[in-house]
Design goal:
Helices cover 72% and strands 0% of the residues. By secondary structure, it is an all-alpha fold. It has one domain: MetI-like (MetI-like fold, Orthogonal Bundle). Helix 4 packs across helix 6, helix 7 packs across helix 8 and helix 9 packs across helix 13. The longest helix is centred in the first third of the chain and has 40 residues. The C terminus is likely disordered.
């Protein structure tokens, strides 16, 4: 019976991996296909001849050279990196301070926690118009700060909720021991609690980075040009009214995907523990 269970588990794992990894495989292979293979039926699962034209901008006819292609995508890549990094940093700092206050001093109580969670239920489209009006009055439309502040509205509540649970799992006796040794609240928080909370901080920073990186709707509403537009909006230029340039779109998709993968790998040491810490109490 054990070998039967092993086979069943292996088949299920293979199906799950296929479900999640096949889109990535298709994205990579399409990025290297020539234009005549974008729409073939039955589809070609392996390019008959590989090309870098989609990265150079030759196949789709959108760019004239590799230099032009790089120069075209660079502003959007820069904007995405700056906005996502600031959102990850600010969201982690704000949520850590708020979560510590709720966890240790019960500021706001459970009503505050419920309010935090309820913000996650708000669809982004419901906040798009009010945010546009606010930022237009502040003359922040088509700026990095408009996107950063708008994305913080989405990421900070969820990050705070995660860190409240995380701080609850850190023994209060550590705070009390620090107070006995003469440390204040701030010194106890920064010197004792934060180092122990590194896995949770890494988890919320990674999740905030990913959520900001892939956000499309608010970026569409709050930006008007390449001075602040991000990569998700750049990808939309390959979808036109008469065709979809799958090759350049896949090539740009790879460029869009790589920074998230690199950021997640850098935080991998703490990420798994941060996401699972506090899930089971013994």
């Amino acid at each position: 019976m054990r070998w039967v269970k092993g086979i069943v588990k292996g088949v299920l794992v293979a199906l799950v991996l296929f479900f999640f990894l096949f889109p990535v495989y298709w994205l990579v292979t399409t990025a290297f296909k020539k234009s005549e293979e974008w729409f073939t039926w039955p589809p070609t699962f392996w390019p008959s001849s590989w090309t870098l034209g989609n990265f150079m901008g030759v196949e789709g006819g959108f760019f004239g050279s590799a230099t032009t292609a790089i120069a075209t995508i660079t502003p959007y890549l820069r904007n995405s990196i700056v906005v996502a990094l600031f959102v990850a940093l600010l969201s982690t700092v704000i949520s850590a301070l708020a979560a510590y206050a709720v966890s240790r001093f019960k500021i706001g109580g459970m009503r505050f926690v419920s309010w935090i969670i309820s913000i996650r239920m708000l669809p982004p489209i419901a906040s798009a118009l009010p945010l546009y009006v606010i930022f237009s009055r502040l003359r922040l439309i088509n700026t990095w700060w408009a996107l950063i502040l708008a994305h913080l509205v989405i990421t900070t509540p969820f990050s705070t909720w995660i860190l409240i649970t995380f701080f609850n799992e850190i023994p209060r006796e550590l705070d009390e021991a620090a107070f006995v040794d003469g440390a204040g609240v701030g010194q106890s928080f920064f010197s004792v609690i934060l180092p122990l909370a590194a896995p949770g901080l890494a988890a919320v920073a990674t999740l905030s980075f990913i959520q900001s990186w892939g956000e499309f709707l608010l970026s569409l509403v709050l930006t008007t040009g390449k001075e602040a537009q991000t990569l998700p909006l750049y990808l939309g230029r390959f979808i036109t009214g008469w065709r979809i340039a799958w090759g350049p779109l896949a090539a740009a998709g790879i460029v869009t995907m790589l920074p998230v993968v690199v950021f997640s790998l850098l935080a991998q040491r703490y990420l798994v523990r941060g996401l699972t810490f506090g899930a089971v109490k013994g």
